Request: fold
Amino acid sequence: MKNISKIILVLVILGIFDASIKMWSQLDIKKLIAFATIQEMNIILLFLVLTNNLNDSIFIIFIFVHGLLSALMFFIVDLIQKRTTTRNIIEISGLGLLYPKLRLVIWGILMFFMGFPLTIKFVIEWKIIFLMYSQSLFLTLCIFLILNVVAVVGFTKQIIAVLYGNINIDLEYSVDLSRRDFFIIFFLS
Reply:
């Protein structure tokens, strides 16, 4: 049983690294969010491999927060696609300059999604890091490096290109966020 756990552990680390690397070169914003979601699912699996405890409250909260944040990010992608008729990062570059309310909502969601200090995700990620540290210092350093350098920098690079890149001439201004959109975002967060 111990050998199977080590194999799963290696596959999880490779999955986290693979999803993190793929975020750097994505041109489709929906795929970018999908790879971030895949990375989080691998973190959930890592938590399971390290603890073997499904009743841990942190695990249940992590799954719940992951579900809400992923749904919220895909909803934002849908809002962007409805306003621009595309998901291509190059074509929607400069979106935040045209839609200031959407830009603020995206930054708020990113703070939760990336585990900004004082958020529930931050607490969960530190719990996982301490759990990994009790297992292996090398494992902790590898995962911490992948998550906080490779993944966050790659993901943020793409989001900043969407929000603050060169405004595409073909991008037409339409309505920013409606009350309905704010309600859904507030409900999901």
About this structure: The first helix runs from residue 2 to 23. The chain has a mean pLDDT of 80. Helices lie at 2-23, 29-51, 57-84, 95-98, 100-113, 120-135, 137-164, 179-188. The radius of gyration is 18 Å.
